[in-house]
């Protein structure tokens, strides 16, 4: 059986202070925010238990944070050496890019880490991504990206849909394309779960989201027709739906699947968006992945994701939207935005590729 594990090797530690950071808000809701640095010994145990679970099937290990590079280079060299030569394994790191130097690039290349860079477009779009002293992080992020390009290391771009991004998507898309960024993912700007204070001005309205979707899709489509395809993960998956296929992106199929998130102290959760005390599945030190997958909290988490409002099942566009991610459903009202978008885009989606 395939297995996907997200690891928080530096817990929630980060050298940036992005104003919308959902993981920071989750940490503040837990009994303890910082869960410690993941030890090499615990990482070895995770690998052994993961390999026992998958057998010859696919193992996907991703490292996120916080900022995962804070854990240090020796840690990622060790992981790479442990899994070197194993077929059907994917190692991935999602980083803000500010710590990347030539030595990091050598590690990424030697051990074939898939790199995701968190960046919100051009300088103006990155207004929410700031350093601890409040100064912009944009220049440092670009330096890290340029090092990856210099070393010939492929990377994906992850962009949070703040209002600044949504309302300037034409300029941001052109910035990405002109800089050779070919694999893009746009994710929602999530509000804190427990009503913590947040900057409402940073979050787009449903109308703004609708306009964003249509503008970005028109740019995506125009480049496809010119033979200059740029992957936008959400649109790629909508096209799959239009062709009767399933999505490869977590949350888009309308239900959750087994994914394990492991914090620095070994605590395991069923989802990155729900790393909260009430969703703890136990500790990886004391459990294997088969036991964790059958934990009552894990099973209930997946079953709850299948519960949809009756209006969703009656919607003409349900086969494309499918209710979306469980976490987004309770946070963002996008129903009318998606109806407007699908009405606009579906005829073209059916004919792409």
Tell me about this structure.
The chain is an alpha/beta fold and 353 residues long. Helices cover 41% and strands 13% of the residues. It contains 15 helices and ten strands. It has helices at residues 22-29, 40-54, 73-83, 102-110, 138-150, 163-166, 169-178, 206-225, 233-242, 289-293, 296-305, 310-314, 318-321, 326-329, 335-349, and strands at 3-7, 59-63, 89-95, 113-118, 155-161, 183-188, 231-232, 260-262, 267-269, 282-283. The longest helix is centred in the middle third of the chain and has 20 residues, at 206-225. It is globular, with a radius of gyration of 20 Å.
Using brief descriptors, characterize the structure shown:
353 residues; 13% strand; alpha/beta; globular; 10-stranded mixed sheet
Q: Specify the helix fraction band.
A: 40-55%
Strand order in space, largest sheet: 7-6-5-4-3-2-1-8-9-10
Separate helix tally: 15
Instruction: Work out the strand percent.
Output: 5-15%
The shape, in one word, is globular
Strand segment count: 10
Write the H/E string, N to C.
EHHEHEHEHEHHEHEHEEEHHHHHH
Mean pLDDT: 92
| Poorly predicted segments | none
Structural class: alpha/beta
The rounded distance between the terminal residues' Cα atoms is 31 Å
Describe what is shown at a glance:
The protein is an alpha/beta fold. The protein has 15 helices and ten strands.
SSE topology:
Blueprint lengths: L2 E5 L14 H8 L10 H15 L4 E5 L9 H11 L5 E7 L6 H9 L2 E6 L19 H13 L4 E7 L1 H4 L2 H10 L4 E6 L17 H20 L5 E2 H10 L17 E3 L4 E3 L12 E2 L5 H5 L2 H10 L4 H5 L3 H4 L4 H4 L5 H15 L4
Parallel strand pairs: 1-2, 1-8, 2-3, 3-4, 4-5, 5-6, 6-7
Antiparallel strand pairs: 8-9, 9-10
